[in-house]
Write a structure and sequence with these properties.
283 residues, alpha/beta, Chemotaxis Receptor Methyltransferase Cher, domain 1
Length: 283
């Protein structure tokens, strides 16, 4: 495809920001070309300009396809490991103790992609089931992309994917080889429900969550969008809830309704008062 025209780049940047929160500046034109070029060829659209013209015309199916093509869907099992260790060693015992009367709690994996994150949590819960007889833990995985959610529901992973972060003991215990792919155990698949969801939407219809994993997605948003998304999440959580962000993500300088936890980077707790972490950090 030919070079992207400035007017087309401006339109795509505004379109992606409004529909998905994704920030794509002029210096990211290579990303537009690498993601939308193949999409255009697949759909028989000759150029970025022609694709933009169809978007301007209100082609709903194309709008969805463009958002999905531009959304990064990088994921692997037990990514960065420490958040999952923290959940297993600190959060899960806390939930077992404080929710003993009702024997239930809820986890939201925002931007769940192809399912490795929620299934990693499901494996941790499965390993701890002897400590939780009669408990019901609901894991909800959401993503803006229908395509990756379909893959997550199927639970099919390539040899390369199961080698990324998954302990060999868990591979043997929870997966079976089906032709050229590995399929995760049906029992684990039943522990996760997947839902198409845009993080820019008001999440209140999904109900309250005790734990939220929103890792490695806010880095693609601008600060106002980050603040809006996190503030809406804080309203879903009890005061003793836990939020996990990615290792390179921070709430410093944002009004979010969360405060950082010094003992573990990337872990935050809801705050009843307005929180501006930059001030707390002595900024």
């Amino acid at each position: 495809m030919a070079d992207i025209q400035p007017a087309d780049m401006t339109f795509l940047a505004q379109f992606l920001l409004a529909r998905s929160g994704l920030v794509v500046n002029a210096d990211k034109s290579y990303l537009i070309e690498s993601r939308l070029g193949p999409l255009g060829r697949k759909l028989g659209i000759a150029s970025i300009s022609a694709l933009v013209a169809k978007l301007r015309g209100g082609d709903v199916k194309l709008e969805q396809a463009v958002v999905e093509a531009m959304t990064t869907n990088e994921s692997f099992f037990f990514r960065d490991q420490k958040p999952f260790d923290h959940f297993r060693d600190h959060v899960l015992p806390h939930m077992i103790q404080t929710r003993a009367a009702r024997k239930s709690f809820r986890i939201w994996c925002a931007a769940a992609s192809t399912g490795q994150e929620p299934y990693s949590l499901a494996m941790i819960l499965k390993e701890a089931e002897a400590k939780m007889p009669g408990w019901r833990v609901e894991i909800v995985g959401t993503d803006i992309s229908r395509e990756v959610l379909d893959r997550a529901r199927q639970g099919h992973y390539s040899q390369f994917e199961v080698q990324r972060g998954l302990p060999i003991t868990h591979l043997v215990k929870y997966f079976k080889k089906v032709d050229e792919v590995w399929q995760i155990d049906a029992g684990l698949r039943s522990m996760v429900q997947y839902k198409e969801w845009n993080l820019l939407n008001d999440p209140r219809p999904m109900g309250q969550f005790d734990v939220i994993f929103c890792r490695n997605v806010l880095i693609y948003f601008d600060n106002p969008t980050k603040g809006k998304v996190l503030a809406s999440m804080s309203k879903l959580m009890p005061q003793d809830g836990f939020l996990y962000l990615g290792g390179s993500e921070t709430i410093i300088g944002l009004d979010t309704g969360f405060a950082s936890q010094g003992e573990q980077r990337g872990v935050y707790r809801p705050e009843a008062t307005a929180t501006r972490v930059g001030a707390l950090a002595g900024r």
